[in-house]
Specification:
With 866 residues, the protein is of the alpha+beta class. It has four domains: 6-26 and 668-857, no CATH class; 32-153, no CATH class; 170-245, Alpha-Beta Plaits, CATH 3.30.70; 262-360 and 376-439 and 457-632, Peptidase S8/S53 domain (Rossmann fold, 3-Layer(aba) Sandwich). 24% of the residues lie in helices and 23% in strands. It is built from 23 helices and 38 strands. Helix 1 runs antiparallel to helix 2 (128-139) and helix 7 runs parallel beside helix 13 (593-611). It starts with 5 loop residues before the first strand and ends in a 9-residue tail after the last helix. Residues 17-27 have a biased composition (Basic and acidic residues). It comes from Rhodococcus jostii (strain RHA1).
Length: 866
């Protein structure tokens, strides 16, 4: 390959056209009806009447009242085993007062079979909506297709909801009835008084309410402390309840071991550092704080750029982890910087956003141990948004990348046979990151923190988030199997973030302390680090994570194979905070795992931003993923099973591989990268609206002359979605994503007109038949399984002949459905949805220049050697 010494090329905006997806034959099997529809309908009608009568009777015996609450009944609709409910029929949205679907969960019935349960709030006087539909079903029960049968045939049982019915985390995690715990309460946003009503109810029943409120469009999230018994009557008093979940606590961190001759190293390195100026981009370390007086950090981090989520916390690093991340976020590989001799010209700076509270003091003899159970936890979505707001207020115009290496573990085991695993589902924390990434802001209203209000001029943000780590007590020889069953932790499942896993090149015990004599590394060079988590255990409706992997160190096994540890020689050198007063200050320590990988990824993102200051965050994310390649060890795993389904499973382990700064920022004469940033309008009045056609400046003649020579095409599409995190089925109007985008490229054997007709119904003339799909020569590495996968980032690689690629110079970007389409009143399509498209061509082993003719064609000055 030629030297990568050329800038990437930016191509003009695409041509927009009206869009309608091509019609497809539906082969969904018909739903088997109940054996006796009359008996079925009669039972459901009786269920509805009994639920309504019981609710009235219960309310007569309750002496707690809350002003402004609407009287009504929470009702559970349960499906037959293995059947999904027709959720849109349970959420009619007709009239000023109507039933409303609040939450959906999957569980097991009494026989152990998987069923779907939907909880609906039915205001008094509106049960008639369901009764009328059941009556119409009964009146036409003798017909081949009775009225409302697609919905009613699916319902096995209707019953009154209990507090357990609103619990959308796994049933086995529902709190013990006698235990006083913190609940994450999701409230329906109706009139802005939902939190006030909850506080009134809490005061009347002796419960505590958290100080933070987090807002997501139709939902407000707040923490509540109390017992099941205290909360039980809320279903008969409050109409605001939507869901109950378990709060997520972040992982604790410990400092790593010492380094040697640290002071001398520090002094030598200081002489070689040229810090970036204050106008440069920054990595904001979202963690435990950063020790800004560290000699290697202080020229790149001002004390005024160190912010805290809670003004009562100290601004300095009280755990040590944030300072460890800061060194890697500033230098990338600190060890390489120390070992080198050249001048280090930094292109970015540091900031700190502290979201972890300081350690709690030890309990005194007088303190009751039970007090620790009721101490107020943090709603970490709110804490994160709050800390970031202070950072942006201090430096509103600075370009920055956020590095978040704090995660919360999934405390769950899905029910046996469950189709929809809990792993990968959005949480309040992950949805906060998605909303912040797409450009939402933080506001203060009525003396309380309210988050994620939309702005007229959104400010998208790039987050690098660690995938989370396999705990030490789970390390094992077969580390790939362990990583595949250890799911990516919260909030790294967020759609809009760049999720970072860890691999390792550290495979030697040279330099290990004496106590590790005879030990050997677990992972081979270039393999996934034994500590890295994956999304193999995620449900198929959730994004593929991690996106990329970076160095995260290795694990060693004892000679007997009975012990595992992470000796310092298998970790990364980084900066250390003096967190223990009076102890000798050592400037270096070692660290490892996905947190270390995340800090290095953030450094790379900031370096790309410094080279291309005007690029969108969506584009920076795309370039990092687009630059990634699998190592030899990873490719060996792909070679074991080359079926596309197996490849996608491995993609959930490795992401797109290891990114490279040079590939992310520079092209070569024989390796051309094109960048396009566009804005598409996905929907209009509940229908598809727009498709974009990119006429690519293709080096067609040069490629054609290469004939059958093998070449590689790579396409990456990146965009940010607006989240809708309420657990109401996550399909159609309840989709988590506001919209989706996909790409397709012209095939070698079809014309541009036929390509447009193949993918766009609007391109067909009246009564014109859609052309037969052209044969797709060459091979997409993942194909439609990845290109159509959930998420807001899609990347694939095509391998074929140069002559074939010469004919593929037209690419389309088009929308797929989301909650914007199904909720026309809240559709923001008219404002436009941004996307970034990266297209690259590589001609390995061919002595050709494909960069210069394309640069000349689009008007980029080219230096010609004479």
């Amino acid at each position: 390959m030629a030297e990568r010494d050329k800038p990437h090329l930016f191509i003009s905006t695409a041509r927009a056209a009206e869009y309608r997806p091509p019609s497809r034959d539906m082969d969904t099997p018909a739903l088997a009806p109940p054996p006796d529809r009359v008996a079925h309908g009669t039972k459901l009608r009786g269920d509805l009447r009994q639920v309504e009568a019981d609710a009235r009777a219960r309310r007569q015996n309750i002496d707690v009242t809350v002003d402004g609450a609407v009287e009504g009944t929470y009702v559970v609709f349960e499906s037959f085993p293995g059947i999904e409910l027709a959720l849109h029929t349970l959420d009619p949205r007709q009239g000023k007062v109507h039933p409303e679907l609040r939450s959906v969960q999957e569980g097991l019935d009494s026989s152990g079979q998987v069923v779907e349960r939907a909880t609906v709030f039915v205001p008094d006087g509106t049960m008639k909506y369901f009764l009328d539909r059941v009556s119409a079903y009964l009146e036409s029960a003798g017909e081949k297709k009775p009225k409302n049968s697609p919905a009613i045939d699916r319902i096995q049982e209707i019953r009154a909801a209990s507090i357990e019915s609103l619990w959308t985390d796994p049933p086995q995690e529902f709190p013990d009835p006698q235990q006083s715990v913190w609940w994450e309460v999701w409230l329906r946003r109706r009139d802005g008084q939902e939190v006030t009503r909850l506080r009134a109810y809490a005061e009347a029943t002796g419960m505590r309410v958290g100080r933070q409120t987090l807002g997501f469009g139709e939902r407000s999230v707040i923490l509540l402390h109390g017992t099941v018994e205290q909360l039980a009557t809320s279903v008969d008093i409050l109409d605001d309840l939507a869901e109950l979940r378990r709060p997520h606590d972040p992982t604790d961190f410990l400092a790593a071991s010492d380094a040697v001759e640290q002071r001398e190293w520090t002094d030598e390195l200081l002489d070689r550092i040229e810090a970036a100026d204050d106008r440069s981009p920054a990595v904001c370390v979202v963690d435990s704080g950063v020790y800004w007086e560290h000699p290697l950090l202080k020229t790149s981090l001002d004390a005024r750029d160190c912010q805290v989520a809670d003004p009562t916390w100290p601004r300095h690093d009280t755990w040590g982890h944030g300072t460890e991340m800061a060194g890697l976020a500033l230098f990338g590989d600190v060890g390489q910087a120390v070992a080198g001799s050249e001048t280090i010209r930094l292109t970015h700076r540091l900031e700190s956003a502290k979201i972890l509270p300081p350690p709690k003091p030890p309990m005194s003899d007088e303190r009751d141990e039970s007090e620790s159970d009721s101490s107020e936890p943090e709603l970490f979505g709110a804490v994160t948004a709050d800390a970031l707001s202070y950072v942006e207020i201090e430096q509103p115009n600075r370009r920055r990348v956020y590095s978040l290496a704090v995660t919360a573990r999934w405390q769950t085991t899905p029910p046996p046979g469950s189709r929809l695993l809990m792993f990968g589902q959005p949480s309040s924390w992950s949805a906060t990151l998605d909303a912040l990434a797409v450009g939402r802001r933080v506001a203060f209203e009525k003396g309380e923190l309210t988050f994620l209000k939309q702005t007229d001029d959104p400010n998208p943000r790039l987050f690098c988030v660690s995938a989370g780590n396999v705990r030490k007590d789970s390390w094992q020889d077969d580390h790939l199997t362990r990583s595949d069953i250890e799911p990516v932790e919260d909030p790294a499942q967020a759609w809009n973030v760049l999720t970072i896993g860890a691999y390792t090149r550290l495979d030697t015990m040279s330099g290990a302390p004496n106590e590790f004599d005879g030990w050997s590394p677990v992972a081979s060079r270039g393999e996934l680090s034994p500590v890295s988590r994956t999304s193999v255990a995620f449900g198929k409706q959730w994004p593929i994570k991690p996106d990329v992997v970076l160095e995260g160190g290795n694990v060693a096994r004892s000679p007997e194979g009975t012990e595992f540890d992470a000796p310092p020689n298998l970790q990364l050198l980084t900066t250390k905070a003096p967190i223990i007063p009076g102890m000798p200050s050592r400037p270096f320590t070692t660290t490892h795992a996905t947190s270390a990988a995340t800090a290095q990824a953030a450094a790379m993102a900031a370096q790309i931003t410094a080279q291309y200051p005007s690029l969108w965050p969506e584009t920076i994310r795309a370039l990092i993923v687009h630059s990634a390649e699998w190592t030899q060890a990873m490719n060996a795993q792909f070679a074991k099973d080359n079926k596309k389904g197996a490849r996608v499973a491995l993609l959930r382990r490795y992401g797109m591989g290891v990114p490279d700064l040079k590939r992310a920022t520079r092209s070569a004469t024989d390796a051309l990268t094109l960048i396009s940033e566009g804005t598409i309008h996905p929907f209009l009045s509940g229908k598809m609206r727009e498709i974009h056609y990119h006429e690519l400046p293709w080096p067609a003649d040069i490629l054609a002359d290469l004939g059958d020579a093998p070449v590689k095409l790579r396409v990456t599409l990146s965009y940010f979605i607006e989240p809708n995190p309420g657990r109401r089925g996550w399909n159609r109007r309840y989709s988590y994503a506001s919209h989706g985008l996909r790409f397709d490229i012209r095939r070698a054997t079809e014309s541009t007109a036929d390509f447009q007709k193949r993918i766009n119904q609007k391109a067909l003339a009246e009564d014109e038949t859609r052309p037969l799909s052209a044969e797709d020569t060459g091979e997409w590495f993942f194909g439609s399984r990845q290109q159509q996968a959930p998420g807001s980032l899609h990347s694939d690689i095509w391998n074929g002949s140069a002559a074939d690629l010469a004919q593929r110079g037209v690419l389309a970007v088009y929308p797929v459905t989301g909650w914007w389409k199904e909720n026309a009143g809240k559709d923001r399509s008219s404002d436009g949805a941004r996307y970034s498209l990266i297209v690259s061509i590589e001609t390995p082993g061919q002595d050709v220049d494909i960069w210069t003719p394309v640069a000349q064609a689009i008007g980029v000055p080219v230096e010609i050697e004479i």
